[in-house]
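Handout, page 2. Input:
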Amino acid sequence: MKKIIEVEDTAEEVNIKDYLGNTCSYSSRKIKSLLKNKSILINNKTAYWDNTVKKGDVLVIDLTEAGRDSTLPEEMDIAVVYEDEYFLAVNKPAGIIVHPTPNHPTGTLANGIKNYLIRKNLDIPIRFANRIDMDTSGLVVVAKSGEAHAALSARLDESDSRKYYLAVAEGEVSPFSGTIDKPIGIDKENPIRRAVSEDGQRSITEYEVMEQYKEAALLRLKLITGRTHQIRVHLSSIGHPLLGDRLYEGSTELIERQALHAYELIFTHPFTQRVIELQAPLPEDISALIDRLKGSTK
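Output:
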């Protein structure tokens, strides 16, 4: 990843180290490393520690990092939704965990993405800017550098970013739209679960009924906060658990996993300032579930 800076905010010549430290908030250690590795150009010429910059200069900073993580590359079909020099977004299938664990060092989305990037000559650490549950499908964003990871994570947490999910919940949902504002914490009886709890973190989910069927509803949900299992807990708490969600008492008669899909992300690109709108189409199992439910539409 390369970052281009057009120097505009200094009337006097400034040492390259001081300029980058003040403008980009890079640490002295990072600047020293970039200069040592000849990763900075000033007007297409290699920058050195004693160089200065002035108004009108163009800096090109190569932030490409070597792959220092332990993620093993693994051949896998990766459904890329969007990619640029800063990040890529993929449509994760259900049934696969996002990152390796001691019990699952392979077979994860990170393993597949590692292989995908290596094939593009990018042997870099895998950094996820967001995560979704193993049995939830949909959009996952992967940064291509530490700087991009920090910027993307911060941007996705800002109030003007929007995260939408599609879900199929049990029962007749009424009213047709609303906000669930209930704190969520660890379930004291089962630490794997989360539960609405007075001493939990404030959690807010907005919902809208897209289609109402005889025994279930297709919902569009917007996350205002991002707690673990938030949608699953909130819908269960109002008597409408997700179909297929065993952990929160959802029926598994029509689908074997929670009917939840991370459908859309809208945010301002932290580097180009363009509005990015990402969408991931519904997977076959949820589409088939909806078709089946439509046969019994009210």
